[in-house]
Automatic annotation (TrEMBL):
Keywords: Signal
InterPro entries from the UniProt entry: BUG, Bug_dom1
Extent of the signal sequence: 1-26
RNA-binding in keyword set: no
Family: Belongs to the UPF0065 (bug) family.
Pfam families associated with the record: TctC (PF03401)
Protein name according to UniProt: Tripartite tricarboxylate transporter substrate binding protein
């Protein structure tokens, strides 16, 4: 009996080798073995938060443990991102993020972390076309009329966004660059803060999500001019895109993705990525994301990281051309 005990570990390793199981992998604990923290770098109720809660609940149901949200807003996603970047790379602290993830290094002279080195892509969740809307007193009903009016009235199209360097700011500048017009940017502390001035006519235009602007469009208080995405959005099927309005190079999408600390084990990232893909293929999930004015999107971890690199290069040109900077 003592001889068997002495040789049992070696026999187990030999059996694992014969069966094709990596002995070191066989000893690894199952993931996830405890609840997973999902950091959302924005306030509760916004687009990132809404989709993060939906996907996290579904991940928890499929993987048999809780995926709970912890909001860490501030610094244009910097506070939450820095927290996750400095967390243990074990898969138990994740971050859901947006384009600020790749544009912050282009806008700020110094960050406490490197988004593209200290964090790595896990999965895409959704693409988010933005919506160009105007105050109803502005005599424009289409992209063509907006461009004509802006050219005829230089320096008189003021647009508000959630802040300098925001996705909305970059999307508007991209459109202005290709349309050959000048738009006067007025930054606010948050997207919702733009609305009182837009409704009162103190700014003429904004660019933001359907989730925020939809109720005002449906009530007739604001006029939708175009979506910034590549195709129309089912929730507002009569609103064209910038591409079909003659500006295909002005297509701009926000997005929502999951990232993890760099050096997180690949097996953990792959499991999260595969499960997220399964979640995003559920009909009810796709329907709810579509109701938010977004489109569920699936990418592998490698595709996510390549997308981040491409987005960084693209927005770098817009930021330089528009002389956009953050104080």
């Amino acid at each position: 009996m003592s001889a068997f005990r002495r040789f049992a570990p070696m026999l187990a390793i030999a059996a694992a080798a014969v069966s094709g199981i990596n002995p070191s992998r066989a000893a690894e604990p199952a993931y996830p073995a405890r609840p997973v923290k999902v950091v959302v770098p924005s306030v509760a109720g916004g687009p990132i938060d809404t989709v993060s809660r939906l996907v996290s609940d579904k991940l928890g149901a499929r993987l048999g443990t809780g995926f709970y949200i912890e909001n860490k807003p501030g610094g244009n996603v910097q506070i939450g991102s820095n927290y996750v970047a400095k967390s243990d790379p074990d898969g138990y602290t994740l971050l859901t993020t947006s384009p600020a993830h790749v544009t912050n290094p282009l806008l700020y002279s110094k960050l406490p972390y490197d988004p593209l080195k200290d964090l790595t892509g896990v999965a895409m969740m959704a693409r988010v076309p933005l919506l160009v809307v105007v105050n109803t007193d502005l005599p424009v009903h289409s992209v063509q009329e907006l461009v004509a009016w802006a050219k005829a009235h230089p320096d008189r199209v003021r647009y508000g966004t959630s802040g300098a360097g925001s996705t909305a700011n970059l999307a508007a500048e991209l459109f202005a660059m290709h349309a050959g017009i000048k738009l006067d940017h007025v930054p606010y502390k948050g997207a919702a803060a733009v609305l009182p001035d837009l409704l009162a006519g103190r700014v003429e235009m904004t660019v933001d999500t359907l989730q925020l602007l939809g109720p005002y469009i449906k009530s007739g208080k604001l006029r939708a001019i175009a979506f910034t995405g590549a195709k129309r959005v089912p929730a507002l099927p009569n609103v064209p895109t910038l591409a079909e309005s003659g500006y295909p190079d002005a297509v701009a999408m926000s997005w929502l993705a999951i990232v993890a600390p760099a050096r997180t084990p690949q097996r953990v990232i792959d499991k999260l990525a595969q499960t997220t893909t399964e979640v995003l293929q559920e009909n009810d999930v796709r329907k709810r994301i579509a109701e938010y004015g977004m489109e569920a999107d699936v990418m592998t971890p490698a595709q996510v990281n390549r997308y981040f690199d491409a987005e960084s290069q693209r927005w770098s040109k817009v930021i330089k051309a528009g002389n956009i900077h953050v104080q």
